[in-house]
Every structure is written in C-alpha cells, then in structure tokens.
Amino acid sequence: MVVVGAASAYFFAADHVMGGNANVAHAAACAVITTVVALWQCSLVPAIAAHAFYDACVFVWA
C-alpha cells in the first residue's frame, strides 16, 4: 500500500509542475494526506471533497 500511495502522490504532484517547485511540494503533501484519509475511510469521497474544498478556497482568494 505504501508503494501505491507514494506512486499516486508522485504522479499527482508531477501534474503540478507548472506552478513551480513549491507547488509540486504542496501538491505532494496534499496527495499524501488525502491518500491516507482515503485509505483510512476506505473511500475516495473524502479525498474528492477535500480537493474540491481546497480548489474552491483557492479560486475565491486568488
């Protein structure tokens, strides 16, 4: 599970390279946290909800 979670975080973070290194690091941290929560809850719904909430906050304050 650790390898799959790490691979998921890697590919998610790699998709955010246009924002620079800080954005990649932030995306990797968020990916690890949401992966842990999704595995803990046995559902993707918390990860999807967290991503939607984060995006909504960024779009409001940007």
Properties at a glance:
62 residues; mainly alpha; 82% helix
Tell me the series of helices and strands, N- to C-terminal.
HHH
Label the overall shape: flat
Radius of gyration, in angstroms, nearest whole number: 12 Å
Secondary structure category = mainly alpha
| Largest sheet properties | none
Q: Into which percentage range does the β-strand content fall?
A: under 5%
Word description of this protein:
This protein has 62 residues and is mostly helical. The protein is built from 3 helices and no strands. α1 runs antiparallel to α2 and α2 packs antiparallel against α3. The mean pLDDT is 88.
Strand-helix topology:
Blueprint: H1 2-14, H2 21-41, H3 45-61
Helix pairs in contact: 1-2, 2-3
What's this model, at a glance?
By secondary structure, the chain is mainly α.
